[in-house]
What we know:
The protein is 40% helix and 18% strand. It has 245 residues and is α/β, with parallel strands linked by helices.
Amino acid sequence: MGRVSILVVTGTDTGVGKTVVTAAVAALARERGSSVAVVKPAQTGVGENEPGDLDDVIRLSGVTTTFEFARFPDPLAPAAAARVAGVPPVSLSEAAERIEELAGSHRLVVVEGAGGLLVRFDEEGATLADLARTLRAPVLVVARAALGTLNHTALTLEAMAGRGLDLAGVVIGSWPAEPGLAERCNVADLEMLSARPLAGVLPEGAGALDREAFAGVARAGLGPVLGGGFNPAAFRTTFRLAPLS
Ligand SMILES: Nc1ncnc2c1ncn2[C@@H]1O[C@H](COP(=O)(O)OP(=O)(O)OP(=O)(O)O)[C@@H](O)[C@H]1O
Ligand SMILES: [Mg+2]
């Protein structure tokens, strides 16, 4: 991944596969012997003794250096979940400091957001975009494959550009075993929106694999910028899609 030491992972929505993509990036970093830490600044929607996103990351990637800075039980955006629980929200400026510190001692720190890019973490309206800007970290956008993804992805990319954020790439979080017309057409349109080939495509079901199989899927599904061997041109050919012009 060149000299990138912090990668912020966001999605076009909740449930698009940020955790699975985060685990895949972490798995490849671990495989090539890089020290890697994974951070979830705010985990919502899980109780104290329940597994959170980082447990999935550990299970799938084998990376055990993980940090959850705050947890709120209600399945809400972090700011709302803190409000409902009557506890202070997570501070993204403190989160930034801790992440910088981790970046000093790890080759790569992967930070998974909550929901999408502009979800609020506190009552002042701090978002993952602010965190990425503070960290000067590139942002990886996880998108759906299906109908509706083009608008969500365009909005996310436009919001990033307006805030001066660097795009690390767009990854499709869950590619169906039998893609329909919309999914197949969306590949070229997602590439047009981001003005670059897809940074990766993970197959549907990847999150349920064991660690070894998951590592294989990560290698095949993430592009070189993320340490894998995914070839977007070959992928387009497989689905007989028009080349990126
Ligand atoms: N490629 C995949 N293979 C298998 N399951 C997947 C895949 N992508 C996503 N899922 C499943 O879809 C659900 C949502 O995925 P995931 O938890 O990665 O989303 P998320 O974007 O991290 O959501 P959140 O906003 O809650 O963090 C999970 O149950 C996950 O197991
Ligand atoms: Mg997640």
